[in-house]
């Protein structure tokens, strides 16, 4: 079953937020499912320029909650991911693969996604 591609404006809307761009960039790069914990660490690395071991518990909690309650549900409603909140598991969808050329153009334009914090 092939999913219907979403329109360009919807993709732009989903990519307005840097956290969602980070999630989409990681999922398209990794080509695999990730946990909420994996994504939390990745967002901290890119968005907050800190590693999960150096981040405060408060920063970790804020990122995790924003992913869980806002960003992952929004990406799931757009059809780009499936998110199982109970298992805290995120999977890329076939639609994400189909939208790869459009997403690449948008994600490539974000200089903050070029280099995460040095480890």
Automatic annotation (TrEMBL):
Domain of life: Archaea
Domain DUF7344: start-end pairs: 14-91
InterPro entries from the UniProt entry: DUF7344
Record's protein name: DUF7344 domain-containing protein
Pfam hit, one: DUF7344
